[in-house]
Amino acid sequence: MDAALAGASSELIQDLVDANHILYHLGVVDGFGHVSVRHPGDPGIFIISRSMAPALVAASDLMCIRLDGRPVSHNAPAPYLERFIHGEIYRARADVVAVVHSHSAAIIPFGVVPGATLRAVSHMGGFIGESAPVFEIRESAGPNSDMLVRNNELGSALAQRLGKHSIVLMRGHGSTVVGSLNVRQAVYRAVYAELNARLQSEALRLGTPVYLTAGEAAGAAQANDNQQDRAWNLWKREVQRSSSS
Amino acid sequence: MDAALAGASSELIQDLVDANHILYHLGVVDGFGHVSVRHPGDPGIFIISRSMAPALVAASDLMCIRLDGRPVSHNAPAPYLERFIHGEIYRARADVVAVVHSHSAAIIPFGVVPGATLRAVSHMGGFIGESAPVFEIRESAGPNSDMLVRNNELGSALAQRLGKHSIVLMRGHGSTVVGSLNVRQAVYRAVYAELNARLQSEALRLGTPVYLTAGEAAGAAQANDNQQDRAWNLWKREVQRSSSS
Amino acid sequence: MDAALAGASSELIQDLVDANHILYHLGVVDGFGHVSVRHPGDPGIFIISRSMAPALVAASDLMCIRLDGRPVSHNAPAPYLERFIHGEIYRARADVVAVVHSHSAAIIPFGVVPGATLRAVSHMGGFIGESAPVFEIRESAGPNSDMLVRNNELGSALAQRLGKHSIVLMRGHGSTVVGSLNVRQAVYRAVYAELNARLQSEALRLGTPVYLTAGEAAGAAQANDNQQDRAWNLWKREVQRSSSS
Amino acid sequence: MDAALAGASSELIQDLVDANHILYHLGVVDGFGHVSVRHPGDPGIFIISRSMAPALVAASDLMCIRLDGRPVSHNAPAPYLERFIHGEIYRARADVVAVVHSHSAAIIPFGVVPGATLRAVSHMGGFIGESAPVFEIRESAGPNSDMLVRNNELGSALAQRLGKHSIVLMRGHGSTVVGSLNVRQAVYRAVYAELNARLQSEALRLGTPVYLTAGEAAGAAQANDNQQDRAWNLWKREVQRSSSS
User: Fold this and answer.
1) Whole-number Å distance between alpha carbons of A70 and A92
2) CA nearest A174 in D: which residue?
3) d(CA B141, CA B153)
4) pLDDT at B214 over 80
5) Residues 5-44 of B with CB under 8 A from C
6) DSSP string spanning C133-168?
7) How many helices (H) and strands (E) does chain A have?
8) Which ipTM score applies to this complex?
9) CB–CB of C238/C16 below 8 Å?
10) Distance, CA of B138 to CA of D4 (rounded, Å)
11) Which residues of D touch A20 (CB under 8 A)?
């Protein structure tokens, strides 16, 4: 295991491993996507898996990376190409302690259709608020990029577009959510952002939805934060059963 | 186990535990949502799980709550925040013996789009009748609530909106169904309300559906009530297999 | 086991039991729906489960029923209320040897929206041909029925609407498919009618589909009939694995 | 095992068997569909299963077929009727080393609606590029075919329509994707073509999508090719767990 992980509690490590498995179990990530936590002992470092499918991640696959994207250890394994998503968001947002990047399917359409804005249509998506920003990589990388956030400049542009929001959509690619409490909150948000997108898409086919007001969204987000372990305990049981079957 | 549960038969307790597991197995609830039954020995009390994910509920997690939301036992565990949904419906509707509250996904769009009315489009949804009412919490709680039915006043307003119906939609939140026969009927209704919503959404995309008449809806609801154990026996087998795998 | 089953081969019995399990496994039936075969030794009798969920059917649950809906044995268990669907179709169609009745979800919208006609949009649905008829029970049972085909008159009206087709939709209820080769063909058609409905719904959202011509539909249906055991063998393996897990 | 398989490595054989199982596990094929690889020792031969459901294929079911569709061995088992899809594409495209033919559901609507063009809407579908061609079998087989590519002439017409693309849609039938690296790439493309179709359908309901430019599509396709084993390793683990449960 990465020596720089020494300062992280076993509970944090376990939560991060569970987070990888839960995100796969719930269909938020497939072979791609990643989740990280800020190192509790050094805000200039985050913990994330080496480059591999989240469902297969074990504690021994975790590594420490500096905010500029350089692995801490000299003999580190190959990191994710898009680790700059994580590093630059942690750099720009001192309040953020966990980040999930995914290609979850219901959100992507809201990122590719100008004028379609993801917003809170149900209380479980309250953290999305009145509108989710969209990152158009063409503005930074030009019209012929490979769509990946593969350097600090692109990561910084993404973080800027995220601003103070909890989620940023990435055109033709996916989305990234952040948590300010812990990795469980970031997982919760990734799961319910996807569900909110599905509900919103369906509602838009029926007519013009009544969305949550800014006050309702903030209130519901707070209420859900207080209850998030109810879902986490269920999800953890599910991935444990799945892995032992 | 809660001492106030003494008057409830072991069959009732088992049905309520099964109901929790079945609602999760069929996707009606996830980590959130709850199901209750009125106490057979005291109409002023209902039985419900302590605050936890329905899929994980065991008989030892059940507790008794008075219609005003106060737990019967002094050393009761933490109850669901939204127990007032149950208590106030039992208070307003002497005929109701079971209540399911959920965020099932296909129903929510009908609750947020003005003019989109959930109604019986197939015989399995006959109990919905010609229109399902929608509870707009803003009318009672103002424009900045956290969307939750967290006190008697909101529970009472919800029960009033339910009226004599079998289901009430909750804007930006979910829905609540009731049963007058037993908890199996309430579970049956929660499952098929969700399915009816899915069928109705699909039909609306094809054109203007022919809905069930009031007579057809009432007839089909009665016929289904007589057959509900055919589904219950299947669902019970499914959750038993799932828990032993 | 029903004494009248004596003339049926063990292979036929096994296929009918498998058919029940396969239709559930593939989501064509849930707790409701039923499948039958005409008795190979007496065209005036069909074999079907007693009234229960298809997924739970064993060989000992099968019973023999005359075309008018009367069970052959005096001490027969309770039959399905809607056995008249089967009996009257076998009576009207000498070529039919198997019948599946279900509420499969993607088909129902085509039965409730006037002008939306289910037809073959992919070669796997060739047996549907250029249009599937819709049975409107109100024309026979009036505006206040319970929607069920619960007597010979309604069964006969349904069979008349089926005509020479392989499938008939039932407004606000479901659909019924027939097979002229064996029960495997009827199961195949029930599975792919549902899939064709899903494909057609999606295609209609994109624009105006090019449907199969009558010649293409007939040709594809014939080609598929010759290959149906490729699917059956897979499905049988799946339900065997599922039941032993 | 087919003697002509002697020149193929055990790794290649295992990948082809895994490909069959993975395509089923991910819902790309059901009882129908097939996957092949060009023989590494003889470009005039390809390796494919005998005619059976992909999920059930074992190494002993593989056989060698010449590009004109004739099995290499004299005592070969029954081959797929549509082996001409594979043979004629290998003949027309020297760069192609693997082919997947399927009826995956989200793609079919794009093949039947004139004017609806499947194209890359997310980076995972970059290989689709700016438009996927559609093969209209009527142009070659007339208005009354059985829709199957059952001879060399139809296979050749399909290969011509494929041109230099990575995917060709088949009207009212399905689609065929090719890989120039290995069978893993063809599987990857079959999986993500289906997902791209689903995303594009959803996006089209929200409005007018911003698609990937030709440059973005090419860049993303290249980046994904470099990462494809991350998904393959996951999928292989999944089918192994599934088969041992």
Assistant:
1) 17
2) D122
3) 9
4) yes
5) none
6) -EE-THHHH-TT--S---SHHHHHHHHHHHTT-SEE
7) 7, 7
8) 0.97
9) no
10) 74
11) none
